[in-house]
Design a protein that fits this description.
By secondary structure, this protein is an alpha+beta fold. Helix content is about 35%, strand content about 20%. It folds into 3 domains: about 5-265, no CATH class; about 310-495 and about 515-575, no CATH class; about 750-855. Strands 3, 4, 5, 6, 7, 8, 9, 10, 11, 12, 13 and 14 form a 12-stranded antiparallel beta sheet that branches. It has a 5-stranded mixed beta sheet with strand order 18-17-19-23-20, covered by helices on one side. A hairpin with a 3-residue loop joins strand 12 (about 215-220) and strand 13 (about 225-235). Helix 18 (about 700-715) packs parallel to helix 21 (about 760-780), helix 19 crosses helix 23 (about 795-825) and helix 21 (about 760-780) packs parallel to helix 24.
Length: about 850
Amino acid sequence: MKNISYLKIGQKSLGIATAMLLLTANSCGILKSKKAKPKPGTALAVPVRPKADSALNSLKPYSQVITAKAVTQKGLFMVHKVADKYFFEIPNSLLSKEILLVTRLSKSTPGAGNYGGEEIGAHVIYWEKGPNNKLFLKVSAQISVADSASMISKAVTNSNLDPINASFPIKARSKDSTASVIDVTDFLISENPLLAFDANDKKSYGLTAQMADRSYIESVKSFPINTEIKTIRTYSAIASGMGKPLPATAEAGAVTLEMNNSFVMLPEKPMRKRLYDERVGFFASSFNKYTDDQQKVKSEDFIHRWRLEPKDEDIDKFRRGELVEPKKQIVYYIDPATPKKWRPYLIAGINDWQKAFEQAGFKNAIIGKEWPEGDSTMSLDDARFSVLRYFASPQQNAYGPNLADPRTGEILESHIGWYHNVMSLVHRWYMIQCGAVDPRARKNKFDDQLMGQLIRFVSSHEIGHTLGLRHNMGSSSTVPVEKLRDKAWVEAHGHTPSIMDYARFNYVAQPEDHISEKGLFPRINDYDKWAIQWGYKPVLDQPDAEAEAKILNKITIDSLAHNKRLWFSGEGRDHDPRSQSEDLGDDAIKASNYGIKNLKRIVPQLINWTREEGEDYTELKEMYKEAVGQYTKYAYHVMKSLGGVEVTFKTYDQPGAVYKPTSLVKQKQAIQFFNQEIFTTPKWLVDRNILDKIEPGEGFNDFETLQAGVIASVTSQSRLYRVMMNERDYGKGAYSPREWLNDLKNGIFSELKNGNTIDSYRRTLQKMYVGSIITMYNKHFAYQGSLDNILAGITPTEIILYSNVKPLAYAHLKVLRNDVHGAIPKTKDYDSKIHLEYLQKMLDKILTESPIPGLTY
């Protein structure tokens, strides 16, 4: 048997090692992440020193410290309140045992930028006896599970010493001498980053020092596995570096917050890990794994999941494939602050996951419940309970974190953040994406049933994150676009295989398709069920996680080979056109064309759909901008095909390449799409009947901003360099950069062939294009040696990139000048003619003057 020691190095989220204790968050369109632990060297490692006795840590009799007037609570820590002092009685049996310390906001000053229920920190701590009758509170920086005979385990231990966060004089011993009594009063209200904001959080919220005269301990409650502390903290407030204004109700520059600290005992028996697999989308934690017989340090990554186990008496049923109930059900409570009419939909979004767990072999594994408001033994801030917290906030957001045991990845609880104004977000999405096909979407205020179903979808998505699932942005790319218009197929199978995708709604469906809500809304689908099965179904009769992983690898290979709908791609891979947010189908060009057809139907109706008697045009402006935003999404979905590279993670057991460039045909179609749909002035979008009501007409409008962004992106040096590399590696099967730019030019300057009139939007577009190519040609830096360039932030790759792109830009500018010169005599329209004369003058100047005298590369 190998001797193994584990050194914790962080958590794997989005394929990257992050903080010690993952608090992942995601939303329906907005990802909100929570800090887990300050980096080494921050204020967390600075000891907080409570007041000491005048005598050097002298012990007193128990009865003199915990007097007859003490109010005592039993629990994780025995808590005594004597007058205005709080004492913890720490049993010896608890020493060195790891405890999860979670800090949340309970209540907040309006406008402070934070909300009651938000998690602001989590750390693993433990108690340890120190010299001179002291008790130390230490922060766990490593977890070691090694055979003491292992030599490498000694090296790991010697390299890592946990910081002492606080030191407490022991005031007394318990009557049987099995516990130590310490005074925690000053510690609980101190500005210790374990219990309150760290320096960076304070800065981001515009807070400075805590005001001692307006800060106090509200309550301390102890339960069997956790102890809860509630404090009121008042901070001086200033305008933050992020430009946030002071809260409107902050009197004399002060912000008052109620904070809750939960000390939660980690499981006595750690759950078995399930090792992470890049092909299945779970959040994960990571360790460096050391063994005496290894020749290379190995990272061991393990997923985040709840502990689901069959009851002992049901093991045989489970083996036979019968559904069984778990030993402990996953329960989510709904905040009593939630409006009653939305509670059933939030609960339905939670319960929808039951069918996914059935694929893993469990029935009734997860359930949503209303909070039992009459139960005084339960607290919303109690870390033993997972709660969907409802925030009275104008922010349009929702997020679903999970809090995991850093030793094993076992999810212990989750507090979902739900912002009231998320309804505004889903309202905009649904009107603009489905208004052409669903009459219910054509009004300012949706019916409760429709809004309830939208809430249900968001609830299911966020619950997925709390179960450990990451985004799967590539899931929708496994669906043929034409199937999204097939009523029978899409209503049966859904428009995306995963609710963890950002696929929103089926904008491809056309009015003549008569597709119902079942084919428009996302749902928990094939990938989600398979991922839950992969992560949660017990693999019986295996000795350890490594043995499990071998079985799961075979299952994964077989599943992916037989069902492409199970493909996982994460949060959006840089250059993979299949892995994008807000897109649909296996062909971004086809899907975008269908989406634009619907936008052409929707935009002319926006004045009617947003009409409210006595109201101004605020709603019209918001929905028009949403329509332009949707149009913009379509453009950038197609953009990713240009210079794109498909990435499909595989093991040695699977055939085929991991990396594959986007086809030549697809890239040429993308340029054609831009020339037809983006660079040709869309008169349907430039609707003066709308624009005259929402903007003064000064400067660029939203459409021109889109064109400028597309021009900059499609002609960027980095994109053209990727095209060059594709041509180098794949020859005639790739899009040559010269052909690429010529195809762009021929579309953007199509009027030059016949001397046609160039409208104002096209003249602006053409200037932007010429300016972008000139910028590409003029991009330079003085090469003064590698060290100087490194210090300047310039990499050797950038030097090569620009030196290769510049000749291409120079040649293209010459061709463009000849085209413009030849078109001027044929152009009759005055404004078009002087525009071309100006471009010729600009091109003559740039081509006759060397941008860098003496340039040799």
